[in-house]
Prior knowledge:
The chain is α/β, with parallel strands linked by helices.
Amino acid sequence: MEGIFITMEGPDGSGKTTQIDLLKKYLESRGYDIVIAREPGGTAIGEVIREVILNPAHKEMSHMTELLLYASARAQLVSQVIGPALLEGKAVICDRFVESSAVYQGIGRGLGVDTVYEVNNFALGDVKPKLTIFMDLDAEEGIKRKKKQANLDRMEMEDMTFHKRVVEGYRKLATLYPERIVPIDATLSIEEIHNRIVEEVEKRFFMG
Length: 208
């Protein structure tokens, strides 16, 4: 079997975790071994970097430091987990990937989308997802959902203006790269969202 690489993107609280679990079960029914990864993290080194990035105490972190830390964790994840899994013909589903940096650091922090992609192209080589699902949800609703779930991390604690820039950034990327980034209304029911994701996966990986 040929390896499959799918990423799940969206603002905080958009329901990515639920849909990743359902997609995992669907791909298992297709006969795939599944690897679930998350960003930042997914490796011992990546998890240490995650703690540094998301720690609310690190208010002094510069935007460029933040971008490079994310890219470093991502490079380790690709080297240690994603790349080998794809070579073995497994299906990889990653909770966030380069698009998160494009919108959070590129647009939210103002570093520029081109800068983010340039840094990450260097870090990741030719490992890129064939399909990116964008769970489209207004920033206000996402943060309202997130506050019900847990304590907020350093990124989640940003003001609403920042989170609105992130959502608009995702929507802009979806219009720029429609061949890969598929927006799905995250206010739909869990079942409706899953069915739409399955349709996209079928089209890209199992129809001819």
